Amino acid sequence: MTLLTGRQYMYVISAFFAALLAASSGSAADLRIGLRSDPDALDPATGGSVAGRVVFSALCDKLIDTTPEGKYRPQLATGWAWSSDNLSLTLKLRDHVLFQDGTPMDADAVKVNLERYRTAPISKRKAELKPVKSVEVVDPLTIKVNLTAPYAPLLSVLTDRAGMILSPAALAKAGDDIGSHPVCAGPFEFVERLAQDHILLKRFDKYWNKDAIFVDTVNYRIIPDDAVRLLSLRSGDLDLIERLSPTDIGTVKGDENLKVIDGLSTAFDLIAFNLNHGPDSNNPAGKDVRVRRAFELAIDRDALNQVVYDGLFVPGNQAEAVGTTFYDNSHPVPARDVAKAKALLEEAGIPHPSFTLGVSNSPVLGQLVQMIQAMVAEAGFDMKIVTLEASTLAANSDDGKFQATVSIWSGRPDPDGNISPWDACDGFLNRGQYCSPDLDKVLAEARQTTNDEERKKLYAQAVGIYLTDVPQVILYHYKSIWAARSNVDGFVPNPDGLIRLQGVKKS
After folding, report:
1. How far apart, in Å, are the Cα atoms of 238 and each of 4, 22, 106, 145, 334?
2. Cα angle 170-66-56, degrees, rounded to a multiple of 5
3. Confidence (pLDDT) at 217
4. DSSP of 289-307, one letter per residue?
5. CA–CA distance, 330 with 460 (Å, rounded to integer)
6. pLDDT (average), residues 275-299
7. Which of 305, 274, 325 is nearest to 459 (CA)?
8. What residues are paired with 134 via a beta bridge?
9. pLDDT single digits (tens) 106-150
10. d(Cα 359, Cα 365) in Å, to the nearest integer?
11. Is 35:362 a contact under the CB 8 Å cutoff?
């Protein structure tokens, strides 16, 4: 018999009443997906959460998508080509595409969105599109993006939020409040949202690829507790859940009504430090790199992976996973060395540094940070854990109200997208305000060539810089694990960890 905590009991009761209120919750036409955290604003210009990207994958098609193998493939754009000098990218757009308000998706609409992403004061996409000089409408179905310098990561950028195209009519009407009712060109349209509870979408009947959509509604239910999310799946209140805990794989495989779906992932977890963002940066870890190096040396990544994740993840210290194209073998994952960690703290004159580590209220992450707390205590650290709801943790981090925080990055197909958001001086996730002109220079050079051998050399330099400065400690790269009811078919995992609903059926 499974005993529930008070928090878990609350979520079970909430899920029970949500099921009672859903008129056709068991219908094959309705898909219920359990998310670990509540998304932030459903506006591609301002969004920054993993959960938001999951919901966006149903709401908003992008100019370019990626395949399960991590390659680029057409979506709203049917094709693209670089100019001979790599200073412009021309995209041919799909014809007869409508937004969910019935207005046409064309080159003018793409221009409106790209200009908003690169210039709007609220936009977090500005850094990603900084090299864009202008956006030119060639004809109703052709758009040309002109650059100030060659920018190899642009294709990757357009596979994410900066490639999502919203209705200009809806933008004109809602302005900065578009996130409360987004209108895109994806397979499902927005119906309602109740914060910390659910997001409901319905099928868009005029979707350009409607023959690939087999469910009528999608209900994303916010259930942070991994155990309760699994209980809801086993009871039939959910059809699919994200981020199944590795320790629960055996339970799912032992239930004939469930199945495990897994795949390779570009995602990784890291601990980011506040180096220069407000008064909370005034702590030993924020102000002395020797303390941060000691912290990393006090951690045993292999032990964390074995105990918390049943050995399924890949311990790592870089933005690219061990063994992949842009991983730098000259900077291998450091082994735990408590004696060296203590020596660094003595050298810094801070033998017992104290700081707080923020983490979202997930039992798995709770176990992770408790292990880290015990590990670093052996080196002399007095690390206190602060547990917050995921969106609160993110908001506090954006405002500099943290000393260190556990974060997840879902990963991108281009290495620039795995380093620049966190470590470039203007990176939109650089919450601790780390800034290295040398690193920015190397990243800029790497963006200007499409030659992988040249890029590998440059990213090796970048690795050397950020591993020396330690603005964050990367822990491991994920293996994406979902669980579904046995009557859910057609879900194909992608390395970005998103739930693409094209082809998904529920019998």
Report:
1. 19, 12, 37, 42, 41
2. 30
3. 98
4. HHHHHHHHHT--HHHHHHH
5. 8
6. 98
7. 325
8. 146
9. 999 999 999 999 999 999 999 899 999 999 999 999 999 999 999
10. 7
11. no
> Strand order of the sheet with strand 132-139?
77-82, 88-93, 142-147, 132-139
The CA distances from residue 13 to 7, 19, 35, 223, in Å, are: 10, 10, 17, 12
Inter-residue contact 309 to 302 (CB < 8 Å): no
The total number of residues shown for the chain amounts to 507
pLDDT range class, residue 246, cuts 50, 70, 90: confident
Q: Which long-range contacts does 336-339 make (Cβ < 8 Å, 24+ apart)? A: 336/297, 336/298, 336/299, 336/300, 336/303, 336/375, 337/297, 338/297, 338/298, 338/378, 338/379
> Any idea which residue has 């992932």 for tokens?
265
**pTM for the complete prediction?**
0.78
Three-point CA angle 442, 445, 450, nearest 5°: 130
Distance between CA atoms of 176 and 39, rounded to whole angstroms?
17
Rounded Cα–Cα distance for residues 151 and 51 (Å): 28
Grade residue 1 by pLDDT with cuts at 50, 70 and 90. Answer: very low
Amino acid 223 reads: I
Residues 6+ apart with CB under 8 A from 229: 34, 36, 223, 238, 241
C-alpha R_g of the chain: 23
Domains of the chain in sequence order: 6-59+186-257+486-506 (3.40.190.10), 64-170 (3.90.76.10), 265-478 (3.10.105.10)
The yes-or-no verdict on residue 352 having pLDDT over 90 is yes
Q: Roughly what angle, to the nearest 10 degrees, separates helices 452-469 and 416-423? A: 30
For residue 446 the two structure tokens come to 């790497």
User: At a CB cut-off of 8 Å and minimum separation 6, what does 457 contact?
Assistant: none
- Show the 3-state SS of 345-411: HHHHCCCCCEEEEEEECCHHHHHHHHHHHHHHHCCCCEEEEEEECHHHHHHHHHCCCCCEEEEEECC
Residue 13's identity, in one-letter code, is I
Residue 280 structure tokens:
């909370």
Quick one: angle between helices 363-377 and 301-309, nearest 10?
Answer: 150
Q: Where are the beta strands (DSSP E) in 113-230?
A: 132-139, 142-147, 188-194, 198-203, 217-222
d(CA 370, CA 253) in angstroms, rounded, equals: 28
pLDDT band, very low/low/confident/very high, at 391 (cuts 50, 70, 90): confident
SS (H, E, C) 65-104: EECCCCCEEECCEEEEEECCCCCEEEEEECCCCECCCCCE
